[in-house]
Amino acid sequence: MPMAQRPPSSCSARPRSPGTAVWFLPAAALLLVVLLRWPPMGSYPPVPPRGSGSVPARRAELYSKMARDLDERGAAFLRGGETSQSLTLTDLFDTGDDGAVVPRLKAADPPVRANVLHLDPEFATVISKAVKEVFLPYFDQVIWFQNTSMYHFSMFHASHHLEPIVATDDEIEAEVEATERVTKTVCPLKVVLDRVVLTSTGVLLGLWQVESGTDPAEIRSRLREALPRAPQKQLYDPVLLHTSFARILGHPKLPEEQSAPSFDHVKFFHGLVARVNEKIHGFQATVSELWYVEEYDVLALALNGKMKVRRLHLGCNHQGNENS
């Protein structure tokens, strides 16, 4: 079976651009959140059968819970502390001659093997523009914006950092072929942005609902059947459909009168998120590709690292015409 060709730039570190730069934080800077693990890993209830109507309801319930995270836990990213992988900013970034921070890419051993739905830059650019218009005036030196060519929805891992599954080249090619067979049964998705939320760990997320196409819960189920060696515990709830837009790494730049210790940061952040939602709530996009990605560097998709990408088109044959 033919395999999707790797893009020319897919196996090399992407250069930093001004639009996606992270700027240097002082020595007392807060620790970088390097991997969003929301909701916590564990055993999830079975995904209801297609047509039951309960998948969108579960998704809405999950999103409401995620939206409450900042209120319940506060802006933890402003208080410092360890990240989920105990990595600090200096673990992940170096400072360039111009003061800009560039990723300190580290080899992933073994490489992470991830299946992600890709959001075309046609749509990602619109979202990124809205996010930057709101957040850049306050966080121009302490924010990381996701590369618009790498916007994605994490679906399923054949191997991840918590449960590495070593594979030979032949086994990897067999995984790609099995994944491609799945994509031929999956219909392109029409998705709508339900809401934007900021987590207590400083990650700005887009949370999406599905209007048509094969539901992500069903896609994950099919990938589970196709990739039996994959970790039993995956990183995300089966109904979650999310995209990372940006990560806040430090305190906002505020007028002096708003810098008092009594300043309500949570209220301030809610105001910024509300402004982003006013701009892009209800934004619609079409998703027509699934990528099988080998991340040779730690967090390559997030940090523009070294990776190998197989682009697989969603074929929508007769098995994929059912909506979940």
Please give a structural write-up.
With 324 residues, the chain is an alpha+beta fold. The protein has a single domain, classed as Cyclic Phosphodiesterase, Chain: A (Alpha-Beta Complex). It is built from eight helices and twelve strands. The strands form three sheets. A five-stranded antiparallel sheet has the order 5-9-8-7-10, with helices on both faces. The radius of gyration is 19 Å and the shape is globular. The two termini are 28 Å apart. The chain crosses the membrane at residues 21-38.
Describe how the helices and strands are arranged.
Blueprint: E1 22-23, H1 54-67, H2 69-73, H3 89-92, E2 93-95, E3 100-103, E4 107-118, H4 121-139, E5 143-145, E6 152-159, H5 169-183, E7 189-198, E8 203-212, H6 216-226, E9 242-248, H7 265-280, E10 284-287, E11 289-297, H8 300-303, E12 307-313
Antiparallel strand pairs: 1-3, 2-3, 4-6, 4-11, 5-9, 7-8, 7-10, 8-9, 11-12
Helix pairs in contact: 4-7, 5-6
Key terms for this structure?
single chain; 324 residues; Cyclic Phosphodiesterase, Chain: A; 5-stranded antiparallel sheet; disordered N terminus
